[in-house]
């Protein structure tokens, strides 16, 4: 009870907390009519307030339930990539004699379109785990046939070394000699009309560089472009259920053969600094207008983002500088360009950068088996102007989880890591395999053996 000193004596100050005065007030209220009205009014107000809060409340703290118990490995998605779905045998055709003669005139060219060469080399290298796991030298026991088609090598040599334009007579000189040898001299294509044949088409327009593409259309293509947009099949030859989307090669990773561990620790952290670049992008953007067809105008937004704190956006950097920036970046922008795919995404993944994919309708490689959502951020074109707000709203905990996933899991997709293993999983998921001798899902004794990484 508060008291104060007044003119030499203590006096008691009656307070609201004085139980006697409260009792008196209550009694006065209960007996007067006005008091009762106030009382009921008060109750009604409280009740109404609670009702409104319960209906419109956005500030109630979230109610977190206890987690569900774990389930069996075999019933989970994403699946355990270390077990096989099936173990098909792949026969790799030798280069037809006419094609060997072409290669003498057409040496390999160093362009980013060499995923066709990398995949073929893996199948032909007896030390690679792709070879050890899947290759057979006996065509009669093969489930799949690999056509050693290197169309990009022929065209890139013509375009970039000889400086010619157009089709470079590729059909007469390369496609037809290759396909005619396989279709007319050997019996395997005709047995299924090419349904069990595979070949790589690593450039943007897949088989659409070739007038005579009809002869190969029955084969399954390994392509670097996956596109769900309805127009895409006529423009880039994207065939959702016929092609298998693979990662593309990149100049930095596959030509320069940059080693991320030069800049990163084994845990994927920068060796020297912290990841202090919030968002990184190197490439074409400064001349792009919002209504351009190129990148659907998305890259026009980057000219304004460029000035924001934490953003490093530029036309590109020399190798060493770019590697340093990659090792310092948290997020990397991967907007569409001429097509939906961008080779940057593979560089981001190799350096532990979380890719921000802005390409509506893109099909990333191995989506049936690989959990892209956990390693990337996808932003729709219609939300692309809010990139900064979207990325800054991601809690640090969530960013860290994605970064760790990129490093520990995402890197398995890279072309020189487990690509063949993942291609084979896609093949196993296709129909019409049950007749195949070595694909017997129920009776294959060795499917649960942990497979050995494809890395050679
Ligand atoms: C496969 O079929 C085509 C078209 O019917 C035919 O021209 C070709 O000779 C056949 N190939 C073989 C090896 O019989
Ligand atoms: C492609 O398959 C169809 C049947 O599905 C067949 O009629 C056609 O001849 C095949 N083309 C080639 C080049 O084998
Ligand atoms: C399974 O793999 C083991 C070890 O590679 C091998 O010894 C065994 O013969 C295989 N079994 C079958 C049924 O292929």
From TrEMBL:
Protein name, per record: Exostosin GT47 domain-containing protein
Positions of transmembrane segments: 36-56
Gene Ontology MF: a single term: glycosyltransferase activity
Keyword Transmembrane appears in the UniProt entry: yes
Family label: Belongs to the glycosyltransferase 47 family.
Domain Exostosin GT47: 88-394
Keywords linked to the UniProt accession: Membrane, Transmembrane, Transmembrane helix
UniProt cross-references to InterPro entries, sorted A to Z: Exostosin (IPR004263), Exostosin_GT47 (IPR040911)
Pfam family, one: Exostosin_GT47
UniProt KW Transmembrane helix keyword: yes
């Amino acid at each position: 009870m508060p008291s104060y000193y007044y003119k030499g004596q203590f006096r008691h100050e009656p307070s609201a907390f004085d139980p006697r005065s409260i009792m008196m007030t209550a009694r006065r209220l209960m007996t007067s009519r006005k008091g009762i009205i106030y009382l009921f009014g008060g109750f009604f107000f409280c009740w109404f307030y609670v009702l409104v809060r319960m209906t419109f409340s956005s500030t109630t703290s979230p109610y977190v339930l206890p987690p569900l118990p774990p389930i069996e490995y075999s019933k989970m998605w994403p699946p355990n990539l270390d077990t096989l779905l099936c173990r098909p045998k792949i026969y790799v055709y030798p280069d037809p004699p006419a094609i060997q003669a072409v290669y003498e005139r057409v040496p390999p060219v160093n362009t980013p379109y060499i995923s066709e060469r990398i995949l073929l080399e893996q199948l032909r290298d007896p030390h690679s785990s792709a070879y050890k796991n899947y290759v057979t030298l006996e065509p009669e026991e093969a489930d799949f046939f690999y056509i050693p088609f290197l169309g990009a090598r022929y065209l890139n040599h013509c375009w970039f070394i000889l400086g010619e334009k157009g089709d470079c007579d590729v059909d007469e000189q390369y496609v037809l000699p290759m396909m005619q040898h396989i279709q007319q001299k050997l019996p395997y294509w005709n047995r299924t009309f090419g349904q069990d044949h595979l070949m790589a088409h690593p450039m943007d327009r897949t088989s659409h560089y070739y007038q005579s593409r009809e002869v190969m259309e029955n084969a399954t293509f390994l392509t670097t472009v996956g596109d769900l947009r309805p127009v895409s099949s006529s423009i880039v030859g994207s065939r959702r259920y016929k092609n298998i989307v693979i990662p593309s090669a990149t100049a930095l990773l596959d030509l320069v053969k940059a080693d991320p561990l030069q800049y990163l620790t084994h845990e994927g952290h920068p060796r020297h600094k912290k990841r202090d670049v919030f968002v990184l992008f190197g490439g074409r953007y400064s001349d792009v207008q919002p209504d351009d067809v190129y990148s659907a105008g998305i890259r026009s937004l980057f000219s304004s983002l460029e000035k924001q704190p934490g953003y490093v956006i530029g036309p590109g950097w020399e190798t060493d500088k770019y590697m340093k920036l990659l090792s310092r970046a948290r997020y990397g922008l991967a907007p569409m360009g001429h097509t939906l795919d961008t080779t940057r995404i593979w560089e981001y993944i190799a350096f532990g950068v979380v890719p921000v994919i802005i390409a509506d309708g893109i099909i990333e490689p191995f989506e049936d088996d690989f959990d892209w959502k956990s390693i990337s951020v996808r932003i729709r074109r219609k939300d692309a102007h809010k990139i900064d707000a979207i990325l800054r709203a991601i809690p640090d905990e969530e960013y860290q989880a994605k970064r760790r996933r990129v490093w520990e899991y995402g890197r398995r997709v890279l072309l020189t890591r487990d690509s063949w293993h993942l291609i084979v999983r896609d093949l196993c998921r296709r129909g019409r395999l049950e007749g195949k001798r070595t694909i017997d899902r129920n009776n294959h004794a060795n499917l649960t053996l942990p497979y050995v990484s494809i890395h050679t």
